[in-house]
Amino acid sequence: xxxxxxxxxxxxxxxxxxxxxxxxxxxxxxxxxxxxxxxxxxxxxxxxxxxxxxxxxxxxxxxxxxxxxxxxxxxxxxxxxxxxxxxxxxxxxxxxxxxxxxxxxxxxxxxxxxxxxxxxxxxxxxxxxxxxxxxxxxxxxxxxxxxxxxxxxxxxxxxxxxxxxxxxxxxxxxxxxxxxxxxxxxxxxxxxxxxxxxxxxxxxxxxxxxxxxxxxxxxxxxxxxxxxxxxxxxxxxxxxxxxxxxxxxxxxxxxxxxxxxxxxxxxxxxxxxxxxxxxxxxxxxxxxxxxxxxxxxxxxxxxxxxxxxxxxxxxxxxxxxxxxxxxxxxxxxxxxxxxxxxxxxxxxxxxxxxxxxxxxxxxxxxxxxxxxxxxxxxxxxxxxxxxxxxxxxxxxxxxxxxxxxxxxxxxxxxxxxxxxxxxxxxxxxxxxxxxxxxxxxxxxxxxxxxxxxxxxxxxxxxxxxxxxxxxxxxxxxxxxxxxxxxxxxxxxxxxxxxxxxxxxxxxxxxxxxxxxxxxxxxxxxxxxxxxxxxxxxxxxxxxxxxxxxxxxxxxxxxxxxxxxxxxxxxxxxxxxxxxxxxxxxxxxxxxxxxxxxxxxxxxxxxxxxxxxxxxxxxxxxxxxxxxxxxxxxxxxxxxxxxxxxxxxxxxxxxxxxxxxxxxxxxxxxxxxxxxxxxxxx
Length: 681
Fold this sequence. Notes:
The protein is of the alpha/beta class. It folds into 3 domains: 33-249, Vaccinia Virus protein VP39 (Rossmann fold, 3-Layer(aba) Sandwich); 287-323 and 434-497 and 588-680, FAD/NAD(P)-binding domain (3-Layer(bba) Sandwich); 373-425 and 507-583, 2-Layer Sandwich (D-Amino Acid Oxidase, Chain A, domain 2), CATH 3.30.9. Helices cover 28% and strands 24% of the residues. Strands 17, 18, 19, 26, 27, 28, 29, 30 and 31 form a 9-stranded mixed beta sheet that branches. An 8-stranded mixed beta sheet has the order 6-7-5-4-8-9-11-10, sandwiched between helices. Strand 1 and strand 2 (19-21) form a beta hairpin. Helix 1 crosses helix 3 (73-85). The radius of gyration is 26 Å and the shape is globular. The protein starts with 10 loop residues before the first strand and ends with a helix.
């Protein structure tokens, strides 16, 4: 999949204030009436009003996929109709691709044309993501509507929604789209989008009854849809346009599996083994148990609850957030790179999501502050990289921007010795225990104080036992989000988790005017309840739970190393220093684990040929414990990573469109270490 920096849409505006694409020389919507065109072409011809009124009372998710987001008009019209007609216990998931996203300013200008879209348009403008390629998940209308924007080439981005790129399994393990809005620019002006590859991907993501509508009546579009299983008809077009197309998938895709194609072989395969593919069926009960009451567990419980699941959260302490998530202040910590590694890509996606995730809490008293985060260099190499990073993200100043010495000092509110920095205006700090408690304030979440010691599979469900062997809870679906304790269970003891001690330091605040979080070799946050929070140490193979004076000095030294001017402005009151110790959980590649729990013995047996040939032909899916999922390994970035990872887990558990692409989901899959070990011998 392409990971290039996006090129934004280039627009011209006609005399009526309507946008025209300079890239394609085409209009975004009908000059007669864009909003009526949308309602006729896409809403009416996908029969949405009738279908939504007839949805069953059981609740669920209805998914629309669109091939060109443009100004967001189609999305807003669909969302408006959804709120008017769909049952309250159903959720609309609107998934839209866009190769050239509008800038925030152009989006606002375009949406001003339709004041009748009101609050929905305001929510979209508030949450509209930075111009980063990849997936962006937005939640609107108190969770009734989810919007996933796929910034990149339509065929590439929609292909990433599939569970696997292996030809044997390309139609298994996929989310299902219920209706398609095929709305790229006219085929004559944008032929690349209307490709055979896109039509095949549309079929792979569709099922019997999936509908499609498009403004065009071009013959190759009609033939392309028919070739992949749609029954297509021409109907009257909108306004002066004579005809358009609509269609319906008439038969479920047929899975052809030739026995000889499924036999592993030592010869090289052009396609990687689909070890990451989990074909276990999804639970119909919509009940789950989450183990762990830190940010990982609370965000996972919240993600499932807003999908209509009943969740029991088990926490071994009497209160939530008593371990690594218990610090008085937590930083939404940025890390940027010139590279497109999985770690840097996930970090960017997670930061963009976190800035939206905490936005409602930042607007309330006592949960933290969206004060921005100023990143200062830790080395000469990093200092040399900062201008390049600023240039790389020049189209996303709301995410990160390069600042000079004076700008950095003005943002911080105090003199700095550093001559430059990177500033993230939409980030800040939170109070982790309050965030955890707020996330589980949901009628579908029940918090229980209990210590789980063992997992046993009985009668198609997991039984969770305490030290005395008593069943605490039982469910078909379990999420282990209990940090390094995840490896205490027999099913997950093979996971390579590290336990790392960290100590923060609190310094009484003085009259310092610090206005933003500053991060470098260490970090400092603006004063909260009369204290500055500094941190944090990083002690591997150290199990001491006690606060140490030596670690306070280490944190003060790190702060001085971050910027020599900051430490001089702190009060010299060594006897007043306080702190807290927590134990982080990390992985060998510093990426978290978020996904299904692999069956280690079965995976090692099934993919044993990788030991002889890392490219061996093994066209088989992975072997995973039914209904058992893992969320851990967030290190010092739990507040940044856990919300997006929780959305990934919830999507996998529910069989929905994921909030990140397939390649990134593989990079977070807990089975990755088993596969790497086999390949390395």
